DNA sequence: ACCTGAACACCGTTCAAGT
DNA sequence: ACCTGAACACCGTTCAAGT
């Protein structure tokens, strides 16, 4: 009868490990968090993690998905706001994974799993931008170039952690670029 | 009498180690190149490197300086070309350190030496952009925002290695943004 | 001053053994 | 199915010993 009970427990334990990983990766960084430290924080032996995740990069991908899922869940709040406000919101929301941006780029060159996640994230972001730009009535052959400029700028803002004033100015300049005169 | 002869030899040997490091870091990546592999390629014992460099990050900084120095030496060729051509040249030239871009961002969070280099590089690039934009007759309060957008876009192009057509389109769109109508 | 072999502390991961 | 202690191969770095 209880055919899904153990699965329930398994999912819960995985979620616990994931929660600890998310906290440690964001607080201390991916490289600074050893599998031993993660296991200790979760109260299990070092190698137990490998029963729930294939390797350390798999933990990273799970953390990234969790952070992005939370962000998307809150997106509706601003989905109808002006473009500049949307951009600012995206940067602020994803700022929590500031330290993970460089990690993703670094690991993507070595881990196929992280590379796949990175490609998917860019695809999603560019689709989001394209929709927004088209709704704003933008047209022309340069729309693809503008999307890339937008994505790269967001990525740069995330990675470098500028002060609030600069961040705001850049988002507004970017939005202005996309507002037909 | 030969007070500078040993220094000469020392500089040569350091240059040899640096040359091997530059090749290996760019070909195989920073993380994939162990200090042991670097030493073997240079024909010395593993720990000999530490007499010429303080640590692995110090080798990285030396490699980065060498690559940028070579690039700047060639810059005069295009310093009077149109802005779009200048941007394209910068991306093409620095493309050789494509794999190192993510490494720099990743290591900057852990190594003060790499962080210092990274800050200096951004300062240099932004100064270069500012000069170019002012010469182009651009003014306004948004000039700082535009510089950042430019730098982040270049960085994104370097890190992601887009195809030639996309790269060209983005550089032209960026240059167009900076050309007063 | 320069170079080395050997050791150190750490890392992600694997494996045989338990329940 | 799930968890563990112990081991493995590797890493950057240090140190005592040589010349």
Task: Report what the structure shows.
The structure is a homodimer of 181-residue chains. Chain A is mostly helical and 181 residues long. Chain A folds into two domains: 1-53, Homeodomain-like (Arc Repressor Mutant, subunit A, Orthogonal Bundle), CATH 1.10.10; 57-178, Tetracycline Repressor, domain 2 (Orthogonal Bundle), CATH 1.10.357.10. Helices cover 75% and strands 0% of the residues of chain A. The first copy, chain A, contains nine helices and no strands. The first copy, chain A, has helices at 5-28, 35-42, 49-52, 56-75, 83-94, 98-108, 112-135, 143-160, 164-177. In chain A, helix 5 (83-94) packs across helix 9 (164-177) and helix 6 packs across helix 8. The longest helix of chain A has 24 residues, at 5-28. The relative contact order of chain A is 0.10. The first copy, chain A, binds a DNA duplex (19 and 19 nucleotides) through residues 6, 10, 13, 34-36, 44-48, 50-51, 55-56. Chains A, B: GO terms for molecular function: DNA-binding transcription factor activity; transcription cis-regulatory region binding. Chains A, B: Keywords: DNA-binding. Chains A, B: Residues 11-71 form the HTH tetR-type domain. Chains A, B: Pfam families: TetR_N. Chains A, B: This is TetR/AcrR family transcriptional regulator.
